[in-house]
Structure formats: structure tokens, C-alpha cells
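Open question from group meeting: does this chain pack into something compact, or does most of it stay loose? Before anyone orders reagents, we agreed to write out a predicted structure and look at it together. Recording both the input and the output here so the notebook holds the full record.
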Amino acid sequence: MLSFGCLCVLLGLGYWLRRKLVILQRLYLPASVIAGLLGLLILQAAPIPCRGIRRLE
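C-alpha cells returned:
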């Protein structure tokens, strides 16, 4: 349920950014692609620690 809520927020942000930034409209980028890129940037900036997975050392 939490992941669905996060996806909805990202999609809303992608839609809002596409409406505000003309360059994204001219590139014909859909809101879903913008939301995916935002999600990728957020995960790379603040990675979620994984419990139960051991690193190979």
C-alpha cells in the first residue's frame, strides 16, 4: 500500500513538472517517464538499506 502511494505521488509530481517546464513538453516526455526518472534520482540520492541481505566481502 505504501509503494502504491509513493508511485501516485511521483506520478503527480511528474505531471506537475511537465505542466510547469516547457522543455519537458517540447521533448514530448510523458508524466510517467518523468516520474520514473524522479524515482530513480530519489533512490540514488537516498538508498534504502536492505535487511537480511548480506554483502559479499
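Observations to bring back to the group:
The chain has a mean pLDDT of 86.
Residues 46 and 52 are 19 Å apart (CA to CA).
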